[in-house]
Amino acid sequence: MLCPEANWVTEPSKHEDQLKYFGVQCIMAHRCKTHQILTIIFDTRQEDSEVAKTNAIAEDLFRRTAAYAPDMNFDGADQPSAEKPWAKWLEAELGFRNHWYPTEASRNIPDNGHKMIKLLGEDILFLRRAGQLYAIEDRCCHRGTRFSIRPLCYTDDTITCWHHAFTFNLDDGRIRTLLNDQGSSLIGRKGIKSYPVREEKGIIFTFVGDIEPPPLEADVPVGFFDEDVAVCVADPYVVHSNWRLGSEGGYDPGHHFIHNWSKYSINARIAMTFGWTSTRDTLLKTCLYETGGNGPSGFTRIASETSMSVAATIPGRNGGPAKEVVLPIAGGQTAEEIEMFGKMDFATKVGAWLPCALTVDPWPFPGVIHNEYYVPRDANSHYYFQCGWTKVDNEETANEWINGQLGQVRWKVPVQEDFTVQDAEAREGIEKFYAEEDGWKQEQIAAFDIELLMWRVFAGDNCRGVQKESHTKGMFKR
Description:
- The protein is of the alpha+beta class.
- It folds into two domains: about 50-95 and about 215-305 and about 330-470, Naphthalene 1,2-dioxygenase Alpha Subunit, Chain A, domain 1, CATH 3.90.380.10; about 100-210, Rieske Iron-sulfur Protein (3-layer Sandwich).
- Helices cover about 25% and strands about 25% of the residues.
- The protein contains 13 helices and 23 strands.
- The protein has helices at about 15-20, 50-65, 85-90, 245-250, 265-270, 280-285, 335-345, 395-400, 405-420, 420-435, 440, 450-460, 470, and strands at about 10, 25-30, 35-40, 100-105, 115-120, 120-130, 130-135, 160, 165-170, 175-180, 195-200, 205-210, 230-235, 235-240, 285-290, 300, 305-310, 310-315, 325, 350-355, 355-360, 370-380, 380-390.
- Strands 13, 14, 15, 16, 20, 21, 22 and 23 form an eight-stranded antiparallel β-sheet that branches. A four-stranded antiparallel β-sheet has the order 1-2-3-17. It has a three-stranded antiparallel β-sheet with strand order 4-12-11, with no helix packed on it.
- A hairpin with a 7-residue loop joins β15 (about 285-290) and β16 (about 300).
- α2 (about 50-65) crosses α6 (about 280-285) and α8 (about 395-400) runs parallel beside α9.
- About 40% of the residues are buried.
């Protein structure tokens, strides 16, 4: 939405070199002379053929959700109904079943080590024996004893229940023997669930589901597996909110406001704006949805056209004066500085991917991609799993990024230890509303929430299944 003042001027960028550094190819800035409000139009779009190939999905999603967002409805949009088109998203309190999930940094389960991790409500015991990583349900099929209380591995490929001596294969969960009844007819039967695991670039991925696992590449953002990409992995931590609040919050167009208090934003003097609202036309131009194939299903916002406002007005009441609110980081900056840093901020490509991933390219510096996941733990918490990627051309640089100072100062310290802390805080700040106050029905949708509604529908349409409470009780295929 443009400033209502009529005195607009068009001016070329005064910082072409810096903006090209951030990948911005074509920029036009409109400035209101009365207020320091910028409408910035820039182009990081891919070829028109790719836009045409994927836009049909965006158009379909917009048609199905427009009636639920104010000022977004149009002729031809589906009429609102009692059952929302994102019903499957609402069902997925515990996550999407039959998907791969990042689970832990490989370094945190050393040889002869073990760790119990709750995923999608299921208690899973991870063990590394003789260099091999295994994942089994943390529940003996006999009477439900938790192996993790006292893991007994008399051999490198078995686990023995410390309660009644049932002994299971670690790789397939079958009963190897009963130490107190070695002629038992139970021997050889399927006993406990074993989970497929795969380790890539320092991350343990676990498949939670019942079907034959698809390739891991189908659930991880494109680029992660490139041979020249090094990945710095932070230790995941628990955020006390449902995973869906993380998935929506990562790309929420209205949430940028919270980052005005980030130390990184302050030190870099980046005014993060009050957020933005897309029109139908710009949304369909800037969001590319992808499904099927060998890669993940999701979308990338590849360009943006928005009002980037560093000042706004709270109207007065009953003849009282209006109050101008200026973003804290914008205070004391020149108009040129605000323009330059604002364009840099909006030059990123944001992607959301099933089952629970986000990518921001570049962030926080050129050549760095921020990747995060909101891994369901249970109905009221998730693991915040974050990693930073960069391209490298030799083993020494790769090691310095993965294990040394390079990855720390270029990604982990400014992002995982600072910038995304506000994101976790915001999720916990709305958890009670959604968990206890019927927030999924009571939320007051704003126009900029149309992107969240589209993602809810897309995710429900393309997930491989929904995790049920029965699964957390062991009622699944073994």
